[in-house]
Amino acid sequence: MKNKGLWVAFIGVLVISFGVIGYYGYEIYREKPPIPEKIVSLDGTVIFTKEDIMLGQNVWQSIGGQQVGTIWGHGAYVAPD
């Protein structure tokens, strides 16, 4: 009988934990900063476009930048821009 209570508590903790993770994951997705369509200089010259930004992000992620930058704080050293 004691084991049943432990299982109920365990499942309750799992449900609450995944609920919190799901909620904050949704909030992060919803509140992400916008990516501009293009960046222009003061004279109107296009410096780079949204496609350039996305390609750069893909390169940075392909060399593991997202895995070290937020944990150790030195992603620019390990996976430079």
Brief summary:
The chain is mainly alpha-helical.
How would you describe this structure to a colleague?
- This protein is mainly alpha-helical and 81 residues long.
- The protein folds into two domains: 32 residues; 47 residues, no CATH class.
- Helices cover 67% and strands 9% of the residues.
- The protein has a two-stranded antiparallel ribbon.
- Strand 1 and strand 2 form a beta hairpin.
- The chain is elongated.
- It starts with a helix and ends with a helix.
- The mean pLDDT is 85.
Q: By helix and strand content, what is the structural category?
A: mainly alpha
Envelope shape? elongated
The total tally of domains equals: 2
Distance linking N and C termini:
57 Å
Order of helices and strands: HEEHHH
Kindly state the percentage of residues in helix: 55-70%
Beta fraction of the residues?
5-15%
Q: Compute the gyration radius: what is it?
A: 21 Å
Unreliably modeled segments: none
Mean pLDDT: 85
- Strands of the widest sheet, in order across it, are 1-2
The biggest beta sheet is recorded as:
2 strands, antiparallel
Helical region count?
Answer: 4
Question: Which short descriptors sum up this protein?
Answer:
81 residues, mainly alpha, elongated
Topology at a glance:
Layout: H1 2-30, E1 38-40, E2 46-49, H2 50-62, H3 65-72, H4 75-78
Antiparallel strand pairs: 1-2
